[in-house]
Each structure stands twice: as structure tokens, then as C-alpha cells.
Design brief:
- The chain is elongated.
- The chain contains 31 helices and 35 strands.
- With 937 residues, the chain is an alpha/beta fold.
- It is 44% helix and 16% strand.
- The strands form ten sheets. An eight-stranded mixed β-sheet has the order 8-7-9-10-11-16-17-18, sandwiched between helices. Strands 3-2-4-5-6 form a five-stranded parallel β-sheet, with helices on both faces.
Length: 937
């Protein structure tokens, strides 16, 4: 029979002809036929039938809505059957129906939507919430209530808000259930959560079927249950869950809005059913308060009484959306007529050609104005009893929102809201629309919830599976460094630092963890930790403990706990004692430092000589004497033993700064030399990983370690240079032999291993700095809640000092730490004193600049251009300037005074000649005055 109806749909899908109009109605007909497809015996069907009939009555009583046209609603019962849904849809098409309200079932909507597509009749459903109905496959399907996509987003938001990571989905295995849970999985994945187990039930499942499904659920790890089903089945699931003691403390039950529908419409539940729901969370579609809604709610009791509805008279959001759906359709029809739409139908010639028998397929008609009406439906923007009502471009309702309901006591309470606009909140979403959307974790909040078991403490959300299976934990069966982890000979047990950290941490958990340690490796060669981690993802092990380094590649496949020991990579190489020699006093400074220091001694001495030469007799004399003076003065400042005094201000400033520099250099040299001569030092040609990479010598690494891949992939070291080593004895032998005898130049390994190795091999040392930062942790599957709890336990061990105690117990026997040995430190570099030299050099430059500016001004004052106009060349004036600079300043000043007296005498003679009117030659008088002046001298 199913194949038969499928063939009918295929025939209907093959196209149609627009010719052969059966009848043409006036532009504004008196009556427009609309269909309504409900399940009269269902809970939702009873209340929505009342709502749609009330909407039709209100529309027909108001001539302004359709301009005098009346709606004629034909209501048919699909009886929750897909087959009957097809039959009823065909019957609608025989009555020139322009649109269908319903069906309320997503399963039926999938079937009827195919007929609606072929006959171009809009199908408006307020209860078919399956998200896949919004696909391009069903262009004539119009969902007039929020899709399950938003409901599942709200549930995923709550899961993430309470920091749970895995849920169990219990659902009816039909289009409605499967597609809803698939959408939930997508929404959880966006928040790095997942569905750990899908518990599917048959649509016609019995209590025994529900029991069998829930028994399997109880054996699972997660305690977060999401129930997505129909109202009639949902209460049976909760009843069986309580029978199996699955509604006690530790469980979380989240029901989709089927449960809020029961709570809203059925009135007070019987005590036994109410106890089954205690602590559950459900969602209700949020409809903001308004005057329209209040008026409709106040009419509801009269409407149900007039319709003869008994038992289920409560108001539900489905009733509100059913009422608004009819109003939406009426406004779209009115706009359809305003645009000149015509209610006309066409016959499909293919149906008339078929010998349909008693099916009367040839009576079905295609609505010619279906596309125009559909476009007007999506363009409607109105305010209904559910609030503002409009569609987004993807044909979903604008700004969907839900209320979060907590079932407690004899009723339920609202603990918050969820909206696509702002996420979880404790205030109505419409109050947040005027603010910018904020989905930050700090902005997501709900009121306190009373969970199953009447507790307000947030459940952990998971337990160990109650199936008697122990956790299989892989442990490296090492051949070396058994202080960290090693198998006890002749037994299946393990001991060591890592094992004690694990057992101590797991004992801090507030629950028992059954586990079994399984050796990985043969005990003769160190196993590959990367392979051990991979086996967790393959399901061979449930976890892995031991000396497992946390690396980037490993974190991509498994989850690690908090590191319990820091262990980056280091370089270990042979070192030799550096003995003192005859030239040990030169060791504190590098050659460049010695050269620059010597040059500055000469520079400062020269600058002081220049500044003091014209003022200070100590800096004058024959050239040989002056050279000796400069050398003596400059180097004697090292001991502040200079005999010459400085008299110029600039010279004293330069000398003061230089003495400060000398003080710092002298102190540093003394400290470094003392350390060099009194402390035993070790030296090595390798100074760290950089110098090791730049060589071509072989490098050792621990067999089975991640070091090999790191050196090849990250440091680009040629694979031929790498030598695998297994035991500490192999390390020591390879390092002693060296590259020239088949050994290695250095070993690269984790610090934790190397510190233990060096405790008994003092002839080697760690060179340079630790060049990676990682640690060791215990590995679990990705997003494992046990990894989170173990991390918390490790942090507690660290805070109370227990972790350090375990470390000292296993790793404190270091023999070489008491010896006064250390690796050779670097010499004092020039860069350490570059600031001092810069300041001193700047002072010298500024002093010389000021000095020469002053000399130039003085020269211009004592030798004006008029006096030197007789010079034949510029070289003569330059020679005069250098002679002036070399001349003692006192001589320059004495000569200046004499010239001033001569100038005064000449001006006196000029005045006498002018007064007496004498014609005596001025040169003669001047020569006489000079002679007399010379005689007087």
C-alpha cells in the first residue's frame, strides 16, 4: 500500500498544464475555502481546533479584514496517520481550497507537503516543528511557530551554561524525533558538546519498550537526559524512569516543549505523575504580554465550554499560534485580492488521462494563484496574540524565544528565558531588544533550579557506567628511568612517581573509579608514547598514565589533565674543568671589551689634554712630554692616582663622568676575576640548542620519545644525525665516546629524565636554557569529564604540598648537587657597558664642541678680519688660528690689554690734531708716541 501511494505522488510530481480552467471566481468572492487538518483526539488537536474556529469567527465578524469575503474553514481529522493525511489532503483539493492550516504532526506534514507543492496550495502549520520542513524541497510549507532548530539551540545553550559536555537523547524514531535530535547534535557541536548515546523508541512503543530503552540508558556514563517525543509518550517515559530509580539525585531531565504543553493544558496532574516529573526542565514558547493576548486568554474558558471540550481546557502556546495562523492567512488573502489575485483552479491533464478508478484523482485542481498567495504570506507583518509576527528571509519567525520551566512541588516555576537574540537571561527577551546582542558567557544566566532529588546543587552530569566494566588504563612498561614508572617484577602492578601521583589523585575523587592498569611495551625497550596515546582514540585503552608529555599533536586527539610536573627539553653534553693559567687575569672581559676600554682611556686623556692645554701648565711643554702626560693621566684614572689637576670646568665634568665609568668597570672586573679564580668551572664547546643545531655532529635522544619528531619537524635537523638511546648507561657511553668514536656530541631529552640522569653522572651537564615548555599529564578521551575531575585533584595535591612530597620521595636523591661546580658563565660583554660608554662619549663630544665654539669666538675677538687683511692666503690665517689655540690663555689676554692701550693712545692723538688744526703728519706723531711709550716702559 505504501508503494502504491508513492507511485501516486510521483505521478503528481511530473508537472501540470495550466490550460482547461474549470471555473473563474470574482476578484472578491463571497466565500474563500480554507482547510484545517488536525488530530481531533490528540491533546494539541483538541485545543487548537477551538483556537482556529475562534479565529475564523472573529475574522468573519469583522468585514474590514477581508472586505466582506467570508472564510469557509473545512476541518478534517487526520487521526495522526500519514495515510489518512494524504486522503484528507486529496479531499481538500476537490473543494477548491486555497490554503490548508495544519497538519500538527511533522510526519504528516512531510507527506502532505508533496501534494501541496504539486497543487500549489500553501500549507501553514503551527505545530509541525521539524527543522527539515523548511528546506527547499517544500516551498509551499509555511511554519507559523518557532522551529525545533531554536528549541534545540536553547537546550544546547543550557548544556554549555552548566558546563556539561555529553547528553543522552531519548526520542521517537520518526521524522519528528530523528530530525530534531540531529539538529540538537549540530547545536551541541557548536559548543564542543555532543550526544553520547541516542536512545530511539518506536512510534508505537509500549511501556516494555520504554523500559528496555531506559535500562540501556542507565548503563551509560552521562546523566543528562534530553527527551524529545510526543505528550502521550513522554509521561510514560518519565513513569518508567522513576520506576527504574532514574529520577533521583544526580540525574538531569530536560524535556522539549511537549511537557510544557501538558502542564499548560491538562491542569493539575495526579500526584503520581507529578512526582515522576519532579526537578525536570522543559521549554515553553515565549509569547510577550499584550492586550490582545489578555483578551484572548480571558475568552478561552468560554470558547472551550462552547466547543464542548472536556478534560483539557487549559491554554497552550499552540492555541495562540493556531489563532494567529488563521489571522496571518486572512491578511495574506486580503492582500492577494488587493493585488488583483483571482481564485481560479486548473485541471491537470495527466490526472484526467489516468484511469484513477474510485480515487477520483481527476477532480483535483491546481490553485493558479498559489505562488502569489504564498509570497503575500511571507510578507505579512502584524501583531497578534503571540506578539509581533513576521518572517525572516530564511522563512523562520522573527526573534523566536522560549521560557525555561522548572517542575517543582505541586506546579512549576519560570527560571529564565532563551532567545536567539541574547541567549539565556532572567529578564524577558523583549526588554533586551533595544540593547546590543550579548552572548558572552558572563551574560548568560538563569535563576536557581531545583534538580531531581530536591537539591539545588548542580549535578555533575555523569557517573561511571554501571555495567561492571573497569577502565582499561595503559601504562608504559619502561626499560629506563623506572623511578618515574616501572612494572614490579613478577606482578601486574606498577610503581614509581607517576603511579603514586595518579593513585593519590584518584583517591581524592568523590566517587569510586574501577580501573585496571595494563602494561604497554615489552620492558626491554622504551615504548612509543605517541602510539599509546593513539590507542586511546582507537578504543583499546580508556586512558593512559605515566611519563606522557603533553604536546600539540597529542592534544588534537586526546584530552590531558593538568600537568603534574614541568619537563621541557634540554641539551646535555660532556663538560670539563677549566683550570687557571698565566693569562687568567684577561678572562673577565671579552677581547672587544678590552679594546673598547683601552680606546676610551686614550680618548678621555686626549679630551682632557685639549680642554686643559691653554689653562694648565701640567699639560704644556715639549711634545714628547705632553704625549707622556696624556698617557699617564688617562691610565692613572683607573686607580685615581693622576698627579695632574684639572682647572677647567669642562675638563672637570668630563673627568667626573669618566671616573664613574671607571668605577663600574673596575668593580665588575674585580668581581668576575674573583669568581673565575675561586670557583671551579666547567666548559663545553656546546652552549645550547642553537650551537648544537649549527653543527653536523650526531645527537642522541631517548627511544620512544617525541623528541625525534620534534628535532626533525621543528628544528629541521637531518634524520641521519639522530641516534636512539634506550638506557641511562647508553647515554653515558655515547657521551663519553663522543662523535669521533661513534658516540654523540650531546643528548636532547626532557628535563625530568636528565636531572635524574645527572644525579649519578657528574661529568655531564645541562647546557643552555630549556628550549620548550611542556609537562606530563594523564591522557583521557577528548572531553572526558574524568580528565576534568582529575585535573582538579592534581591542583589540590599541588596546593596542599602532597605533590612535592611525592616528588621528594622518588626523585630527591641527586648526588651532584653538593659539589661546588657550575658551567662556565659568559665573559663580560661589551653590550653590558655600552650605555656607560655612550654617556662618556657624548660628554666628551659636547665638551669639545663647547670648547671650540668658545675658542672660535675668542679668536674672532682678538684677531678681527681688518687686522689680517694683509694675509696673502687662507692657509696663513689657519696657521694663525692654530698658533692662537696652542698659545697660553694668559699670554693672549696680556697681548689683548696692550692692544687696547695702543688703540686708546691713537684715538687721543687724533683728537689733539683735530683741536689744534695742526697739519702735522699723523704718522709722525704716532711714531713719536710709540717711541715715548717704549721708553717709558
Amino acid at each position: 500500500m505504501r508503494l502504491f501511494w508513492t507511485l501516486i505522488l510521483i505521478v503528481l510530481y511530473n508537472g501540470y498544464s495550466s490550460e482547461g480552467v474549470n471555473s473563474t471566481h470574482p476578484a472578491r468572492p463571497k466565500v474563500v475555502n480554507i482547510g484545517c487538518m488536525l488530530s481531533f483526539e490528540s491533546l494539541v488537536g483538541k485545543i487548537t481546533k477551538v483556537a482556529v474556529e475562534a479565529a475564523v469567527e472573529d475574522i468573519n465578524s469583522n468585514p474590514d479584514v477581508l472586505g466582506g469575503t467570508k472564510l469557509n474553514m473545512i476541518t478534517l481529522d487526520s487521526n495522526s496517520s500519514g495515510f489518512l493525511g494524504i486522503v484528507e489532503a486529496i479531499r481538500f483539493m476537490e473543494t477548491d481550497t486555497v490554503a490548508i492550516v495544519g497538519p500538527q504532526s511533522s510526519v504528516i506534514a512531510h507527506v502532505v507537503s508533496n501534494i501541496a507543492n504539486e497543487l500549489q496550495v500553501p500549507l501553514l502549520s503551527f505545530a509541525a516543528t521539524d527543522p527539515t520542513l523548511s528546506s527547499l524541497q517544500y516551498p509551499f510549507f509555511v511554519r507559523t511557530s518557532p522551529s525545533d532548530m531554536f528549541q534545540m539551540a536553547a537546550i544546547a545553550e543550557m548544556i554549555d551554561h552548566y558546563e556539561w559536555r555529553e547528553v543522552i537523547a531519548i526520542y521517537i524514531d520518526d521524522d519528528f524525533g530523528r530530525n530534531g535530535i540531529a539538529t540538537l547534535a549540530d547545536q551541541l557541536a557548536k559548543r564542543r558538546c555532543s550526544i553520547s548515546y541516542k536512545a530511539a523508541m518506536k512510534p508505537e512503543a509500549t511501556l516494555d519498550d520504554a523500559r528496555d530503552v531506559l535500562v540501556q540508558v542507565a548503563l551509560r556514563e552521562s546523566r543528562i537526559m534530553v527527551v524529545h517525543t510526543y505528550p502521550s509518550k513522554g509521561l510514560e517515559i518519565f513513569s518508567m524512569a522513576r520506576y527504574l530509580e532514574m529520577t533521583d539525585n544526580g540525574y538531569v531531565w530536560i524535556a522539549t516543549h511537549w511537557l510544557s504543553t501538558i502542564l499548560d493544558t491538562s491542569g493539575p496532574l495526579p500526584p503520581d505523575k507529578k512526582e515522576n516529573l519532579e526537578g525536570a526542565i522543559t521549554l515553553r514558547i515565549h509569547t510577550p504580554r499584550s492586550e490582545l493576548k489578555q483578551k484572548f486568554v480571558s475568552r478561552w474558558s468560554n470558547l472551550t465550554r462552547e466547543a464542548g471540550v472536556t478534560g483539557t481546557s487549559g491554554m497552550s502556546t499552540y492555541a495562540l499560534y493556531a489563532y494567529d495562523t488563521v489571522w496571518l492567512l486572512a491578511r495574506a488573502i486580503n492582500e492577494f485580492f488587493n493585488q488583483g489575485g483571482n481564485v481560479s483552479f486548473s485541471k491537470d491533464p495527466r490526472l484526467t488521462e489516468q484511469n484513477s478508478g474510485s480515487l477520483n484523482l481527476d477532480s483535483m485542481s491546481i490553485f493558479n494563484g498559489g505562488k502569489l498567495l504564498l509570497d503575500n504570506i511571507f510578507k505579512v507583518n502584524m501583531t497578534g496574540v503571540t506578539g509581533p509576527y513576521s518572517f525572516t528571509p530564511d522563512k523562520n519567525l522573527f526573534r523566536p524565544a522560549f521560557e525555561v520551566i522548572n517542575v517543582v512541588g505541586t506546579g512549576f516555576r519560570k527560571v529564565g528565558y532563551w532567545s536567539e537574540y541574547s541567549g539565556l537571561s532572567i529578564v524577558p527577551p523583549e526588554t533586551l531588544y533595544s540593547k546590543p546582542p550579548n552572548h558572552s558567557s558572563s551574560n548568560q544566566q538563569l535563576h536557581s533550579i531545583i534538580w531531581p532529588g530536591q537539591t539545588t546543587e548542580k549535578p555533575r552530569g555523569w557517573v561511571f557506567p554501571n555495567n561492571g566494566r573497569q577502565l582499561k588504563i595503559g601504562v608504559p612498561n619502561r626499560a629506563s628511568f623506572r623511578e618515574f614508572v616501572g612494572k614490579v617484577p613478577g606482578t601486574d602492578s606498577f610503581r614509581g612517581y607517576c603511579i603514586e601521583v595518579f593513585t593519590t589523585a584518584i583517591n581524592l575523587l568523590p566517587y569510586a573509579v574501577p580501573y585496571k592498569l595494563i602494561a604497554f611495551g615489552d620492558g626491554h625497550n622504551n615504548p612509543d608514547d605517541t602510539e599509546l596515546v593513539r590507542l586511546i582514540t582507537a578504543g583499546v585503552y580508556d586512558a593512559a598514565i605515566g611519563d606522557i608529555a603533553i604536546t600539540t599533536n597529542r592534544t588534537k586527539t586526546v584530552g590531558f589533565t593538568q600537568p603534574y610536573i614541568e619537563s621541557g627539553l634540554v641539551v646535555v653534553a660532556p663538560v670539563k674543568q677549566q683550570n687557571s693559567n698565566a693569562w687568567a687575569f684577561l678572562r673577565p672581559f671579552t677581547p672587544r671589551m678590552w679594546c673598547v676600554t683601552g680606546v676610551f682611556f686614550l680618548i678621555v686623556g686626549t679630551v682632557i689634554w685639549i680642554l686643559e692645554h691653554r689653562l694648565n701648565d701640567d699639560f704644556r711643554g715639549p711634545p714628547s712630554k705632553q704625549i707622556v702626560t696624556v698617557l699617564w693621566f688617562s691610565f692613572s684614572t683607573l686607580f685615581t692616582a693622576q698627579r695632574e689637576n684639572t682647572v677647567s670646568t669642562l675638563g672637570r665634568i668630563v673627568l667626573l663622568i669618566w671616573l664613574f665609568v671607571v668605577l663600574i668597570i673596575n668593580s665588575s672586573y674585580t668581581a668576575s676575576l674573583t669568581s673565575s679564580l675561586t670557583v671551579q668551572k666547567l666548559s663545553s664547546p656546546i652552549t645550547g640548542i642553537e650551537s648544537l643545531v649549527n653543527t653536523k655532529e650526531p645527537i642522541g635522544y631517548q627511544l620512544g620519545s617525541f623528541v625525534r619528531n620534534y628535532l626533525i619537524q621543528e628544528l629541521h635537523i637531518d634524520e641521519s644525525r639522530l641516534v636512539p638511546l634506550n638506557l641511562p648507561e647508553d647515554y653515558a657511553r655515547a657521551l663519553k665516546d663522543g662523535p669521533s668514536h661513534g658516540g654523540v656530541a650531546a643528548v636532547v631529552d626532557e628535563r625530568a629524565y636528565m636531572e635524574l640522569f645527572l644525579s649519578s653522572h657528574c661529568q655531564f651537564s645541562i647546557l643552555g636554557q630549556e628550549f620548550t615548555k611542556n609537562g606530563w599529564g594523564f591522557a583521557f578521551p577528548r572531553d572526558s569529564p574524568l580528565a576534568i575531575d582529575m585535573s582538579t585533584a592534581i591542583l589540590k595535591l599541588s596546593e596542599n604540598g602532597e605533590l612535592q612530597r611525592i616528588h621528594d620521595k622518588w626523585l630527591s636523591g641527586i648526588a651532584c648537587t653538593s659539589q661546588n661546580t657550575k658551567l662556565e658563565v659568559d665573559r663580560l660583554q661589551l653590550k653590558s657597558f655600552s650605555g656607560l660608554f655612550f654617556i662618556c662619549g657624548l660628554a666628551c663630544f659636547l665638551a669639545l664642541l663647547i670648547y671650540f665654539v668658545m675658542i672660535a669666538c675668542q679668536y674672532c675677538q682678538y684677531y678681527p678680519k681688518s687686522e689680517s687683511s694683509g694675509e696673502s692666503s687662507r692657509s696663513g690665517r689657519l696657521q694663525t688660528f692654530f698658533s692662537f689655540v696652542d698659545e697660553k690663555e694668559e699670554s693672549v689676554r696680556s697681548r689683548s690689554k696692550r692692544r687696547q692701550l695702543e688703540a686708546t693712545s691713537v684715538r687721543s692723538i687724533d683728537q689733539d690734531a683735530s683741536i689744534n688744526g695742526s697739519r702735522i703728519d699723523r704718522s709722525e706723531i704716532y711714531s713719536n708716541r710709540v717711541v715715548s711709550f717704549g721708553e717709558s716702559v
